[in-house]
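Form 7-S
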Amino acid sequence: MSYKHHLETVCRYCGVTYLIYYEFHQLRTRLAQLETELQDVRGTAEREKAQREALELGRLEWERALHLELQRKSEEKESSMREKINIVCVLRHQFKK
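Output:
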């Protein structure tokens, strides 16, 4: 590594060495990249959260519809059973006469 004169390694206007300026520029560039990546990750996380919430809402709606359908079928079966019992009672009453 050859030795350079002090004036060759320092900015005439601000006095900062070129090596420090280069490293600072590299850090700024890396910071900008990381900020962009962070925004991407945040966006992905928000989309995933929205998808989870939509899936959960869909699941809850499906469960409610299933519960209502099962309840309706149970009521239909119970009603049908009552009708059959009534018919049997009527027939028994008629045969007893």
